[in-house]
Amino acid sequence: MKVTLNKKGDVYSVYVPKKDMEQIVVSIEQKGAWGGEFTLANGWVLEFETLDEVPALPKTMEAKLLTRGE
């Protein structure tokens, strides 16, 4: 799914356009320099591609929904 990832200060947020939903990232299980599993405040866990460097944000990216936290 396409999402927009943003960062303000030390806080990441994810906007999901198809759901018109923005959520704060509450934890990151990082893999590599950047990427891995991002857990959102609503319980969703999204997996982002592992990158060799931190991308410039905000950025629209592909993410895989691993769980809805239900």
TrEMBL record:
| BP terms from Gene Ontology | nitrogen fixation
UniProt cross-references to InterPro entries, sorted A to Z: NifT, NifT/FixU_barrel-like_dom_sf
**NCBIfam families (UniProt xref):** nifT_nitrog
Q: What is this protein called?
A: Nitrogen fixation protein NifT
